[in-house]
Amino acid sequence: MRSLPHGTAPKRPIDYRGRVKIALMDSGIGLLAASAAVRRLRPDADLVLSLDPDGMPWGPRTPEDLTERALAVAEAAAAHRPDALIVGCNTATVHALTALRARLEPALPVIGTVPAIKPAAAGGGPLAIWATPATTGSPYQRDLIENFADGVKVTEVPCWGLAEAVERADETAIDAAVAAAAALTPDDVTTVVLGCTHYELVAERIRAAVQRPGHPPLALHGSAGAVAAQALRRLRAQAAPGAPASGTLTVLLSGREGSALPEPALTYAEGRLLQTLAPARTAQ
Predict the structure, then answer these.
(1) Region 92-108 average pLDDT
(2) Which of 29, 89, 108, 117 is catalytic?
(3) Is 159 annotated as catalytic?
(4) Which CATH class, in words, describes the domain spanning 21-113+225-279?
């Protein structure tokens, strides 16, 4: 992928009363949930989705290697001159957000994705945080727990293979990974934090696996809606869910402009929603 020199993030005057272009990045289709949330808030927004099929998965990579991949994917998106960039990946936010902001801001606002531990803990009940094995037990996640869930019973649940199964839309593997994580989740849990953006694509399957008979309805907390709203706030671009659905879609695959989302994305409602966007005719 072509890299932009340091300090050369694209700049242009922006009229936030008019069209808005939002870029989202991830190694794979975990960005679908936040992309769909932006789409619902601003149906007229142009979306640039920058994925890294050549380098995925990012989770097993060293922090330095992951940061290098994330910077390249972000710069591919930045070349399309978006108004903001959402890092639609918890792992990339943990390891690469500082480098991304150093490279692209202030010309391009960069919004990270943080597990929704704070709102989940506000309910006060026992909660579980489902996350990738790389994130589970990390200093980053432990700091969030200490800062926002002090006094609340928290169980960290490593979800082996779930993100990879969701990425492939492998139904059998998804069921097995969800069942394994559910078995590690205490019976008294009332709230589950979805600490990986991929998990939001199978949220109802997670709910069905964790919900205990006779217990109150399980609360699930993802990050997609909050991240989308934060991006619009950073731009002072008011949400306009009633606007005409006139936005366009650009898909970048390891820097290459693609014509469509990867086929597994269409397995999920979020992918099918984005598929209704018209392809952008030219790079801008």
Answers:
(1) 94
(2) 89
(3) no
(4) alpha beta
